[in-house]
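Quick note —
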Amino acid sequence: MQIIACYSNKGGVGKTATAVNLAFAYAASGRRTLLCDLDPQGASGFYFRVKPSEKLTEARFFEDADRFAQAIRGSDYDDLDILPANMGFRDFDLFLSRMKNSQSRLKKTLKAVRSDYDVVVLDCPPNISMLSENVFHAADAVVVPVIPTTLSQRTFEQLLEFFGDAGLSKERIHAFFSMVQSIKSLHGEIIAEMTGAHSERFMRATIPFASEIERMGLARAPVLATAPNSRAGRAYRSLFAEIDGRTKP
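Predicted structure written out below.
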């Protein structure tokens, strides 16, 4: 079972849109896929019209495999299930801080469903915390959307520094540029600078700033389901193909 984390230590970069479309793409490729929403805001579940289980507390998430499995919901798409988040997930860090071997708890939790799924896609909250450390230890790949702005550049450098300090392999980081506007010269300049400095970490695929992505909240469905041949749809297909090529066993 592969674990693909969609993560950024900065909010508003298109992380959840990426997780939703990648999960759809994995399922469309014939792989049994679970989209696990770890963000208490629950946007991934909202996009798939799935209501969360309020009974899945932090203790049950990490210690009760049966409750974890019971909280998983089917979606409208073949081979794609959703574990929606609820507001109780905001206490994950506090709970993990009291556990032994806390860095490996998420990986242990996900092992409970490894016979049911080929791929688990994690939609992660935008911070560096004990939960994100769990994500970094569990994930086979950490997919990082980066807006080509100075602030996003700074937060990406912080992420690389954290991986180095924690002794984590930076090779698991697969970054790409998100919400790109080609008419902005600054975007072009930062893309050139960051790909020059971190050529091995950045993929070729980029996701444009596009109305189809903004409309996901209205359609409550992935772009790849509603507008697969749009500019954004083609971009997500390219992103999926590149990630799959980098990470497929």
